[in-house]
Amino acid sequence: MTPRRASLGCMLAAAALVTVALPAAVHAAAPHAGMAARGHRANTAGIDLVTYPTHVRDVVVVLGALPAGDAMAGNGNAAVPTLTGMMLDRGTSTLDKFAIAGRLEEVGASISFSVATQSLEIRAKCLRKDLPMVLSILASELKTPAFPAAELAKAKQQLIGSLRESLQNTGARAQEAFARAIFPPGHPNRPHSVEEMLSAAESATLEEIKAFHAKYVGPRYLTLVLAGDVNDTAVRREVRKNFTGWTGGQDYLRSGPPGAPSAATPRDIEVPIKDKPSTTVLLGQATGLRYRDPDALPLRVGTAILGQGFTGRLMGTVRDREGLTYGIGAAVTADSVADGAWSISASFAPALLDHGVASTRRVLEQWWKDGITDDELAARKQGIVGGYFVGLSTTGGLASTILTSIQRGYDLTWLDGYPEAVRAVSREQVDHAIGAHLDPAAMVLVEAGSVGAPTAAGARSEQ
Prior knowledge:
This protein is of the alpha+beta class. Helices cover 43% and strands 16% of the residues.
C-alpha cells in the first residue's frame, strides 16, 4: 500500500464495515450516559483531544487526523501532500530519523503517518509509561520537521516506485478510473491520476513542501484520540507541555461541484492491463449524500443487505449460486466530509467477465426495483449492531470509531446512540433511500485488467 493510498478506513477496515450514519434527530436524543460517560473531550493546546480509558492494562493507542490530504493540493503540485506526510518521521529540528527510530524501538513503541484524500492521519502505540516520550516525539515531528533534502530525494523515489507498482494493480486502477468518472474536476473526492502523481513527484521541491506544511499542518482542526490505559489529567498535562504555542491549520474541503458524471463521461470504461488472471469491476455512482444526511443510514443498511458479507444478495447469487466470482460486495464510501460514492466491487476471471457483470446487474436491478424484505432488514440490523460492538471490543477499533465519528461531526454521545439509530430504521426508509439516490441506468461501469478482446465464443480472452 502506498502512502497516498493508506487511510484510516483501510487501517481499521473491520470498524469501517459496520460504521453507518446517525441521523441528526437521533443523535440529538442520544443518552448522555453509558459509553460516552467514560470518555473526556476538550480543546487542549488548540487540539481537539479525546481520552477514553479502557480495561486494557499498560497499553495506549493514539489515533489522529487533520485536514492535510491529497485534496488540499488544489492547483498546486499534486504530490506535495503525500510527500509532506512521508517526510514527517524523517527527522526533526532536534532529532534525526535514526535517533527517533532508536528511542521508539528501545521501548517497543511506534509512530506512523499516512495521507488519504482529505486527511493526514496519525497512528501511535506505546506502553503507558512511555506515553510522555511518544507525545514529545510526535509533537516534534508535527511542529518542527527538518525536511532534509537527502530524505526528500528518497521519499520521492519511494513514492514513484509505489505509483509505478500501482499501475499493475487492477483494484487501484479501477478505483482511480471510477472516482475520476463520477466526481468532476474540483470535487474533493476526485483523485489525481497516477500519471499526474508521477510527474508531480518528480518535480516537487522542498520549498513547496515547507509551504504546504506551514499552511495545513497545525492544531486548529487536529483531532487526537488516546484510548487504553490513560489518565485524562496526565494526558492533557503532556499535550499542553508539548503542543502549546503551535498554531495553524485549515478546515476540510466540504463542498465542490455536484458529484455526478458529465454527459461526456462514458458509462463503460475499460482499463486494459495485460496478463492479469482476474479483472476488477466497479459499478456505481455518486450519491450526493454526506454521512450525516437523513437518507445516509437507510441507504447503508440497504446496501449491506445487497452486498455485505456472505449473507448479502450479491454473494448469494453471483458467487454461491452461479459460481462466477470468489468475492463481490457493495458499499457506500468517501462521504465522511464531502458527498460520497456508492459502488459494487467484484473480481472476475476474464472468461467469465461478461457473465459476471450481467449477473451483478440483474441482482442490482431487482434490489433497486423491488426493495428489501422485513426479514432481511431485521437480520441485517442485528448483524450491524453486533458488528459495531465487536469493533468496539478492541482498543484500536474503539479509537477508530471515536475519531471517525468526530470527523463526521458527532460527539461522544454517538457511541451510545448508534445502535438505537440502526434499530429504528424502517423498510420504507430503506426503499426510499435506494430509489431516491441510486439509478442503475446512470451508473458507471469500470473494468480493469484483461479486457477488450472478445473470443470466438463471445467471452473475453486473457490476453
